[in-house]
Amino acid sequence: MSVAELKDRHLAATQTVSALRDRLKQKRLLLLDTDVAGYSRSQGRTPVSFGPTDLVCCRTLQGHNGKVYSLDWTPEKNRIVSASQDGRLIVWNALTSQKTHAIKLPCAWVMTCAFSPTGQSVACGGLDSVCSIFNLNSPTDRDGNLPVSKMLSGHKGYVSSCQYVPDEDAHLITSSGDQTCGLWDITTGLRTSVFGGEFQSGHTADVLSVSINGSNSRMFVSGSCDSTARLWDTRVASRAVRTFHGHEGDVNAVKFFPDGNRFGTGSDDGTCRLFDIRTGHQLQVYYQQHGDNEVPPVTSIAFSISGRLLFAGYSNGDCYVWDTLLGQVVLNLGTLQNSHEGRISCLGLSADGSALCTGSWDSNLKIWAFGGHRKVI
Amino acid sequence: MSPEVGNIVVEERLEYAFAMEYHGPPITSELPRAVPINVDRIPVAAVVSQMPLPDKLSLPVVQPILANNLTKKFSKELKFLGSESNVSPTSVIAFESPNGAVIRDESLSKELASGSEITVSPSSVYAFEERRPGNDGCDLSGELSSSLDTHYPCGQYESGELSGMVDRSNGLGSSSISHDHSRELLNGVGSSGPLGFSGSFEKSRELSESSRKMMISRDYKGSLDYNNDLNKPDWASNESVISVDYPSSRVSSLKVADGCNEPGCDVKRAPVVTFCDIESEDEDSNDRFSRAGPEVVRAKKEPAVKVRKGACYRCLKGNRFTEKEVCMVCDAKFCSNCVLRAMGSMPEGRKCLSCIGFQIDESKRVNLGKCSRMLKRLLNDLEIRQIMKAEKLCEVNQLPPEYVCVNGRPLCYEELILLQSCPAPPKKLKPGNYWYDKVSGLWGKEGQKPSQIISPHLNVGGPIKPDASNGNTQVYINGREITKVELRMLQLAGVQCAGNPHFWVNEDGSYQEEGQKNTKGYIWGKAGTKLVCAVLSLPVPSKSSCASGDQVSNIISHTAPDYLEQRALQKFLLIGYSGSGTSTIFKQAKILYKDVPFSEEERENIKLLIQSNVYRYLGILLEGRERFEEENLNDLRVNQPSSEDELIGRTDGGEEQTIYSICRRLKAFSDWLLKVMVSGNLEAVFPASIREYAPLIEEMWSSSAIQAAYKRRSELEMLPSVAGYFLERMVDILRFDYEPTDVDILYAEGVTSSNGVACVDFLFPEPAYEENFNSSDQHESLLRFQLIRVQSRGFGENCKWLEMFEDVRIVIFAVALSEYDQFAVDENRSLVNKMMLSRKFFESIVSHPTFDQMDFLLLLNKYDLFEEKIERISLTKCEWFDDFHPVTSRNRANSSNSSVNHAPSLGQLGFHYIAVKFKRLFSSLTDRKLYVSLVNGLEPNSVDQSLRLAREIVKWDDERPNFSASEYSVYSTEASSFSH
Predict the structure, then answer these.
(1) Is GTP-binding among the key words of this record (chain B) (predicted)?
(2) Model ipTM?
(3) Do A100 and B800 lie within an 8 Å CB cutoff?
């Protein structure tokens, strides 16, 4: 078989695939008689309303010198790790807003960080293509720096995102600029599976984000520059379980819905979307028309514990709180008092859902929580 | 002045607009600011109201007010007066509260209390005196006089605004109590002091007591302002007392270095005032200090909230005995409940949120990094450690260099760093004037004997003055007249001091008489001398100070703390499509600027890398050999009869042989190597194989077959061009004890690509021939540079990661000139010219929003290869360059040496052509200018030059704002801040 022949066949196959995809899309559209917002409205639901003290900035975590790129909460609720362009990871006590650790990184270009489920160690990754694990309990060296306890190397591109597999400190899932995701065994430092890549069907561009299903930790979803999100089963590395089309730009953020049956995405096209993993349908688009033609990309998203609220950070410094049911913006943190001055680059909800932490390019992190006095019922 | 009264006033005067023009007598800078209240004189009493009104109110002082705003304005003012009462223990609150009656009672009792306290307090001298006339004129109770006392400050601060109002009220003749009053006062002042004054007193008697107090205090203020030096003897006694007291207390407050931070001021600085006294107060203090000495005092932060002494500044609770943490800047104190809220995450140590970024109070410098018990209770160990570290090390908290004068010259930033980072730094360096003997390292306060011997030869401060230590012995050491104590020490140490000699003392204690060559002895040589020094409390050299005089020069490079690293780091981003030679340039920079370009460990890794590379090259070569052999054999078989001569002979059981054939042993090795390479685990087997196969390799390399294959290496596409360099030295390289040289490393592939990003910090070494004729050059040499090399491979096309490099100063984009005829497979799996790929990548980088307005330097790399190649292969092979029609001189062919008639060579023409192509492309994308430089990564000089060019570009960029003041970049301010 000659190269030209192969090429022709490849072309034909690609056309077939896209034709089938189109048909699938058409069929989906036919079946999709409503979206979440439409249905809720028909059911007479009203959007959540926020009082002036219902969500206020109650702490500002200052200490980074560079843009904050990523943050993560511990499950035990009051600690945060944040990664910044000044080449440091800082572990914060969110209650007192003090730093407990400041970890100087060997490579300053860090893009992501994660807290382990037990809170004993943190992981980070960045342009050095390595995911580094730091054990918070290990003694510091002479200069007061925490030594790297494990280097997970193997990615051929930058590490864009990492998350520990819940309930165990030993496994971690990373996403990388080499178009793959990886499942790592931290104790051995080896990559147990590679999702996607050259010889497998997977993302066709940089993978930017992963999120592990909270109720079934074998499933995770990834978002990529190929404007798709893909659902993976950690036991099946060769191909994605499902591919979710819909976005018109890079998918910057993915996050599982608390019930584990849906997930949200945030994209460069300025929209957030809600997908159902069982049907593969797109349930809802969250998009706010701006006055001018500029569409600020969504940089990061997070769901409230109930899933009713979707927090989305935008590159223009806005942080919308969406009512996921009604598809309406109910609050904009960017307009509140003490809000960030720069792009909001990362968001995270504490494990118990009582506080939201936002990290921004203005080098600060802010903690938002209920600010009034609770009525005793 | 109750709210109702205020309203009435407003109604009456509604038709009037408040013009803010000031018609009163000229106000000098001595308008009442410092107040004759001493710390101890403030009566301490319980706070009447808990309402922290002040910060919510806008200040009435300067804003022009419209007529219909008057109501608001007045009520606000009233509130101000009211809110002051929060601060001062006396009772203005009474009228502020709605249910006045009850509270008034309360306040009355309080007032009485405070009044009584005043009589008790030792500071109430003039309060009594005041009371006397007051009591004479009208029957005021003690409470009034006490309030008189405490209300001075409030009134005084309102001076400017008040007199403005006063003026208008003159014209109006309205019944506003306050205005009426002050008009009277002004009149009084204008005509005759005492009269007016008593008049105002008369009036005040008829007013409600609280407002009366206020007014009286204002009266005093007014009279103080305008009649400071008109203290006529016939003034009312209280008046004179005050005017006398005023300057005196002012003087006393001057004596306290940070008078503004005196607790007493907390009370006197009522909220009404805070915003205006930042400048005015400051000027004033600067004035004062400039008179006092050369010290410069920077803007002082003051606590935003004024509270009574001893209370927490946030919750206003507690007394002086409750444990509190103090803000290092503004002296605000917070109780344990509030400290975390007030200070937040403490990124710069213990500072309240509003003080972050401000310099600490010098008097608190000693406390830096010393944790209080309270914090330890509140926070855990790790947190404490972080805070204290931040407090000690953050840049804002460092000693400001201009506070330290050495030999009469304030230090600049670098000098201070030098001083602090030397092996034997001055202990507990505080702001002040010091002298420093650079030869011996003696260090002391100006006008005093030496206190310490620090590292010598530090280039800090000016030359030492003869009278630096204020000696009068006429004996000189290194040009400084020494003190008596020192002379005594010298005598005891056995140094001949007869005839007032001038000594030269070196850092090791050796001394010689001026003008003589021979060393006369060692001052600290004898054991007894050290004892004598200890007795006379003179310093002796510490071990570190004498040992390390010559290390000083490179000290900055290794002891820079964190905050320094951030400071003057200029980042260059080196980027290029794969194969463009960025790695070589990066390695070259490392070798050029680093003393130790590669650590032992790195070298070991590089060695392994080079060796495995050589194996790989060898494999490719062997593969080629097999191919050539096969081809040859085929040829042989085809034209057997014709090419007999090719055939060397038949041996080994009839096997055919060509010049590419190798013996069986080598063949076995070759097969093994190829098998290993195909299976892809070359790295795994290779270290062990090194020893085993070393002799074999040697044999193989020398075999004619391999040499023959090597001659045809240009036909092996897989073999990189650098392979020849290594293959020729293969025998050496594959030795076990092989040490890679810098050149080897430079040529080696894959040294920096182990991870995606690599960076190197460096300083440009000052070339020897370049004299420091200009002092700014000296500082520039301290600028640190960072070359960041990013590998484009695996980083995706849409460059999500580029926004991380927003802070680089210049992007250095490398393009290999020689790749115009090479092809690579792009993401669509089609063959594309590498130059076009480079161009595409260049376009995407240049048009990336992150690099908007960024300077670009294009490095056209691999010129040596290009020059050689362009003679063979036309540049038009690349479709972008299809209009390259060089005008070559016709006689070029016969005069092969083009340099004779200065005609540019084809290589130069090609380079210029490509440079122009890129420049056009760049300006079509950005409308800016592209800097282009020719470089050859393998030549140290060309890399050095191009990096220096990058530095120059950055420097031009910094200097540009100096010519056009409109655009002022952040960097230029930075640059100027360390050049002073």
Answers:
(1) yes
(2) 0.83
(3) no
The SS3 call for residue A179 is: coil
Residues B796, A206: C-beta atoms closer than 8 Å: yes
Of the two residues B483 and B275, the one the predictor is more confident about is: B483
Distance of alpha carbon B377 from the chain centroid:
33
Q: Look up residue B65 and give its DSSP letter.
A: B
Q: Which two tokens stand for residue A60?
A: 């500002």
Q: How far is Cα of residue B284 from the mean position of the Cα atoms in its chain? A: 29
Q: What is the pLDDT of residue B936?
A: 85
CB B86 within 8 A of CB B52: yes
Chain center to CA of A217: 16
Residue B313 φ/ψ region, left for φ over 0, alpha for ψ in the -120 to 50 degree band, beta for the rest: alpha
Contact B505, B523 (CB under 8 A): yes
B347 touches chain A (CB under 8 A): yes
Q: How many residues does chain B have?
A: 980
- Quote the CA–CA distance of B2 and B923 in Å, as a whole number: 72
B376 part of contact set with chain A, CB < 8 Å = no
Confidence band, pLDDT 50/70/90 cuts, at residue B379: confident
How far is B346 from chain A, CA to nearest CA, in Å?
A: 7
The Cα of A41 is separated from the nearest Cα of chain B by a number of Å equal to 38
CB pair distance less than 8 Å for A225 and B356: no
Q: Report CA-CA distances (Å) from A140 to B201, B239, B382.
A: 72, 68, 12
Min mean pLDDT across B33-42, B110-119, B378-387, B866-875 is at B110-119
Per-residue pLDDT at B849: 81
Kindly report the number of other CB atoms within 10 A of residue B558's CB atom: 9
The string of DSSP letters for B345-388 reads: T-BTBS--GGGTTSPPPGGGGGGTTPPPHHHHHHS-HHHHHHHH
* Per-residue pLDDT, A45: 86
Whose tokens are 């023409």? That residue is B909
Query: Are B345 and A59 an interchain contact pair (Cβ–Cβ within 8 Å)?
Result: yes
Q: How far is B13 from chain A (nearest CA, A)?
A: 38
Q: Considering only CA atoms, which of B234, B153, B222, B132 is closest in space to residue B184?
A: B222
C-alpha–C-alpha distance, residues B214 and B162, integer Å: 12
Quote the pLDDT of residue A275: 94
Stretch B609-618: mean pLDDT: 81
pLDDT averages per 10-residue partition of chain A, 377 residues? 85 92 87 85 87 86 90 88 92 89 89 92 90 90 83 89 88 91 92 84 89 91 92 89 90 93 93 92 87 84 93 91 91 86 91 91 90 65
- pLDDT class of B322 with cuts at 50, 70, 90: confident
Among A86, A88, A127, pick the best mutation site for testing chain B contact (most B Cβ within 10 A). Answer: A127
Q: Do residues B270 and B32 lie in contact, with contact meaning Cβ atoms separated by under 8 Å?
A: no
Residues of A in contact with B800 (CB under 8 A): 160, 177, 206, 208, 225, 250
pLDDT, residue B135, reads: 40
Closest CA to A208 of A231, A180, A189: A180
Q: What is the pLDDT of residues B533-558, one digit of tens each?
A: 777 777 777 654 444 444 444 444 34
Distance CA B805, CA B177 (A): 65
Spatial separation of the C-alpha atoms in residues A179 and A55, rounded to whole Å: 38
Distances from the Cα of B773 to the Cα of B303, B769, B778, angstroms: 47, 11, 9
- Token duo for residue B583: 């790695």
Contact between B107 and B299 (Cβ < 8 Å): no
Give the pLDDT score at B44: 54
Q: Kindly list the residues from chain B whose CB atom is less than 8 angstroms away from the CB atom of residue A99.
A: 345, 382-383, 386-387, 390
Round to the nearest angstrom and report the end-to-end CA distance of chain A.
77
Determine the pLDDT at residue A171: 93
Residues of chain A found within 8 Å of residue B756, distances taken between Cβ atoms: 127-129, 157-158
Q: What is residue B482's three-state secondary structure?
A: coil
